Amino acid sequence: MSLLLQLSDSALPTGGFSHSFGFEQYISRGEIHDAATFSAWLRVYTANQLTHTDALAMRLFYEGLPEADLADRVVASTLPAQLRAADVAMAKRLRTIGVDALGVPRTDVELAHPAIEFARVARHFDVPCADAIVGHLSATVNTLTQNAVRGIPIGQSDGQRVVTTAHAWIEDACRRVWTLEEGDLGMVAPGLEVAQMQHERLRARMFMS
Amino acid sequence: MSSALGFRAVASGPDAYAGTMNLSVGRAGGRSRPVRTESSGVLRLMKPLHLDDSGQVAYFVVNPGGAYFSEACRMDVEVLADANLLLSSQGATRIYRTPRGPAVQEAHFTVRSGGRLEYVPDQLIAYRDADYRQVTTITMAPDAQVFVEEIVTPGWDPDGTPFTYAGMLLRMEVHHVDGGLVCADNVRIVPGDIGAAIDGIGYMEGASHMGNVLILGQHVGDAYVEAVREVVDTSGLTTAGVTSGSRHGIPWVMVRALASSTDTLSAMVLAINEHDRAVTTGQGRLHLRRY
């Protein structure tokens, strides 16, 4: 439990602080401008990206899918260039923390995604898969909401209300991940992805993705 | 059946297919020519054409109207070394209601060294209660060239309600001939699950049509990607994104656009194709007589 709390602390320098994963594009289009519109985006993001990439990659990692294949699939399935760069950079930091601070054995598997590195640390400490998924998804939702608080901006209380509402979406993602198949890995919702691609050309931006 | 890539809808065994097609083209005497052309069931291959003087061979696949009631079709296409194939369809692929399970299309393309594939089918239209799964795999040599596009749209509904199809899963994977995944595009639109949100943020965002273009090959460098961005910028499509990458030594660029008509998306696709041809084969703009 304390390990999960440590890993899920938004202060942990995983680099999530600098990424909006596409919602900044919606801010620039005027489509995200308050807690309600951010919440609508976060719900779709949780039901798609966090379910089909993050949660499913963690499940497949725990199930023993060869790690090199899993990394290859995750990187190849992440089409928006900024997202790929963000995932690899965050994965790198988390792997370093795992090795240097937590005593997780070194590995030379390709760096692909922070969800996989979260799973690697959690599995090393015998954290059950379902708990690890909740931990990683909660951490991501918290970080994204903190970024929305700064980026839109919205108030801290509004942000916490969004996080509270998001608990149900995370639980839903955790239920649905067990019904998915390997072939569902990386499945996207089209609008989310178009915005992530468009962000590459956003002129004035606070976030790297 | 579960392959290494695991997908519930892929049919198993040759009898499971309502239609199959096996096409292989090679190059001889300065021209691309058929090596093997077989089709069975509901899929038909028209006779080969040479639409210009480039030596490229063009084939049109016929999907008779009403096909795919819950059936699976499979296309196997191989472009041998240095051959150049244009593959299109004669009219839109229409998927009607599928009460006995999803309609499935599997397409497997192999493009050998120096080969070139242009896969430019007409749009796919999913009508009320249609459930559709499409799995496309492309296996290519690092010095091959690939241009693929697709446009998908909901069909007309008697009530005038958009998005009455049951679901669409579109998966495309590109593999290096020596192994390794270059890129994979996996889109899922299930209106029943999403409800009113299908029009909202993240999903179709008010659009009815989705168009995708994927181009791979050593010619896809920074200047090429910039040129594609310019074409997309001038297309008038506001919900369109361009991104690029390179993996296992094969560079690629991908365009995804949401719109409310086939015409605007087709115009963008053809303009991108025109640029692609200008920097590769020198062929002029593609004319399929249907736009």
From TrEMBL, chain A:
It is found in: Cytoplasm. Keywords: Chaperone, Cytoplasm, Nickel insertion. It comes from Ammonicoccus fulvus. Its main location: cytoplasm. Required for maturation of urease via the functional incorporation of the urease nickel metallocenter. InterPro entries: UreF, UreF_sf. The gene is ureF. It comes from the Bacteria. The keyword Lyase does not apply. This is Urease accessory protein UreF.
From TrEMBL, chain B:
Keywords: Chaperone, Cytoplasm, Nickel insertion. The keyword Nuclease does not apply. InterPro entries: UreD. It is found in: Cytoplasm. UreD, UreF and UreG form a complex that acts as a GTP-hydrolysis-dependent molecular chaperone, activating the urease apoprotein by helping to assemble the nickel containing metallocenter of UreC. The UreE protein probably delivers the nickel. Belongs to the UreD family. Required for maturation of urease via the functional incorporation of the urease nickel metallocenter. This is Urease accessory protein UreD.
